[in-house]
Structure formats: C-alpha cells, structure tokens
Design brief:
By secondary structure, the chain is an all-alpha fold. It is 76% helix and 0% strand. The radius of gyration is 20 Å and the shape is elongated.
C-alpha cells in the first residue's frame, strides 16, 4: 500500500513541477512579448500585429494554471464564519461535500472542454495561424488535474479530518 502512495506522491510532485515551470515560462513569455510589442510600436514605429492576440491566448493558459495551483495549495477564497462554528464532524462532511461539488464541476469542464476543443479545431486565430483547439485544450487538461487534487484532498479529509482555517488569518499555506 505504501508503494502506491509513493507512486501517487511522485506523480503529484512531477505534475506540480511541470505546472509551476509552465506558469513561470508563460508569464515570462507574456512579459517579453509585451515589452517587444511596446518597443516595436513606439520606438521602431512598426507594431507586431499578432503579439496582442498571442498574449491574450497565452493569458488563458496562465489563468487555468493559476486555478490549478490555487486548488493544489487550497488557497481559494472562502468564507468560513459559519463553517468554523460547526463541530469537527460536521466540518468534515461540509468539506467532503465541497470536494465532491468541485469534482462534479471539473468533470463537466472536462466533458464540455473536450467538445470545445473539437469546435476550436475548426477555427484559427485572426492574426496568427494558431488553431483554437490548442488554446482550448488547457481547460480539460487542468480540470483533469484538479479532479486528481480534489480526490487527494477528499482522502486526506476522510483520513485525517477537516482542515482548520481558523488560525490561518487568510493565508492557507
């Protein structure tokens, strides 16, 4: 049993590293491309026509990656005033219910995201020869990862108990 847990831990660790590196690389890419866009437009008087659209499409990927990172770190915004007043057993069931809702939402996002990828395969960006399926593919991928994180959080909640956000002061790390 420990071996399976170790394998899952390795997969989770590898996934986290890939997501973190992709986030940094894409943010750096947006920064450099935005800077180049300004330089070419205002200094060289020859704007890069496709740069703004590529920045917007890359930003979509960064938003999905950010959602995945927030899910992994359990740092989404939450209002816990009533939750904190409940007994631990009730808190556990509320947290499990929230995990189930997130999984259901993510399953729907994967399902409809795959349909969107199919629809996006028929479209290309206006100023780029970029197929929209590539942009839309990030939705199903990240939601599949979020399902994995949520299942791990459910198992943790079931085995260890509910997370206590009372003394965190808004910082869940």
């Amino acid at each position: 049993m420990q071996k399976n847990n170790s394998g899952l831990t390795k997969i989770k660790g590898c996934t986290e590293k890939v997501i973190d590196v992709m986030s940094v690389v894409l943010l750096l890419f947006i920064f450099i491309l935005g800077l180049a866009q300004v330089i070419w437009r205002w200094i060289l008087n020859d704007p890069i026509v496709w740069s703004e659209e590529l920045i917007q499409l890359t930003y979509v990927w960064i938003c999905y990656l950010g959602w995945t990172i927030a899910e992994r770190k359990d740092s989404h915004i939450r209002i816990t005033a009533i939750h904190n007043m409940l007994p631990k057993s009730a808190q556990k069931w509320v947290q499990l219910f929230c995990h189930v809702l997130t999984i259901v939402f993510s399953v729907l996002m994967v399902y409809y995201g795959i349909k969107l990828v199919g629809a996006g395969a028929k479209r290309t960006a206006v100023s780029l020869k970029l197929n929209y399926a590539i942009v839309y593919l990030m939705g199903p991928i990240t939601n599949f990862i979020i399902i994995f994180y949520e299942i791990a959080a459910m198992i943790e909640c079931w085995r260890i108990g509910p997370r206590d956000y009372r003394d965190k002061g808004g910082d869940e790390e």
